[in-house]
Amino acid sequence: MTDSAFAFMPYPHVDVPRAVSGPLAGYTFAAKDLFDVAGYPTGGGNPHVLAMSGVKTLTAPTIQRLLDAGAELVGKAHTNEMAFSMSGKNAHYGTPRNGAAHDRIPGGSSSGSASAVSNHLCDFAMGSDTGGSVRTPASYCGLFGLRPSHGRVSLANTQALCESMDTAGYFAREAKVFGLVGECLLGEDPAPLPEVPQLVISDALFGLLPAASLDALAPAIAQINACCGPLEKLEGELPSLTDAYWAFRYIQGREAWQAQGELIEREGLALGPDVAARFAWSKAVTDEQYNDACALRERFAAHWKALLGDRVLVMPTVPDIAPLLSAKDEEIEETRRISHHLLAISVLCRTPQLSMPLTMKDGAPLGISLMGPVGSDLSLVKLAVKIAGFSAA
Q: Which tens digit of pLDDT belongs to each residue from 211-221?
């Protein structure tokens, strides 16, 4: 499929069979080009991987679940190379258009999925989130976006990056569609939120933001507060976000190299400069660094579980709006580093987190997030739908 927003891989159209009726009948969707779909190749954002792929004969169970619910797949969406970037820029294929801010990057690595939805080319889209690859584009492109509890949504027949952190998430423009897709993908919660959930907010996390971002998010916080009752202040000392950032980096790096390193070296893959540098760094992660990081992850998750219990955390998705398309690589890399101090929290805790498009800054979207306990995914989606609807009441 070809499109003016450059959201989709230019594969020949395939009429993928779907149910004629169901809860998602009448809705269209895109799949990130990491998910296998029978009749399509899977390129993973790299031309050499695409050439090796061949046409797939099986469809990833998560995509099949949507088809069985009646949704129509309209194409496979661009991804950052090997899903190992958050900018949305791909050295081989270019940059999909941010439908909410044409002069800014869409974010990644689920760049094409977010672009397709934000440019009204489909109703929702599947992406993946290892370290922020759904939540970041959702914030940048003005979308609802969910990173589910780790393991909640199947990643079978999907190109891997980091086994212990990869998740299958999704985007939607409209709260209603976000809710419907959540009901289809997630099923019944193993650990639903209380009927009247308590929401808490951390001054320390919002303190990481520039003053202008804080000002921009104030109406969103007020909307959540008005909809859900008074927000409590999160009491207690937070574990070190700097330590968490490095634990995330070491785990992601080691597992990314384990997943893709042999292929990269055997095939001599030509990688974009940013992705090549990231894999080179990943190759050098030591056993000690990885094991220490895994131990810290368990302590970090236990600390947050003790702090939050069954409450929902209101938090920034990322510190600021999307960088401009003209931003230098150094600025985009620094944005990635700062953002991961927030994004790594739910990754290490294995908890669901979703971003909501409730506010703007300088004409561009800026998301705000809800993070719930492990297994509360659908409850969290329904809460987001309620909050979004409150603004229209």
A: 999 999 999 99
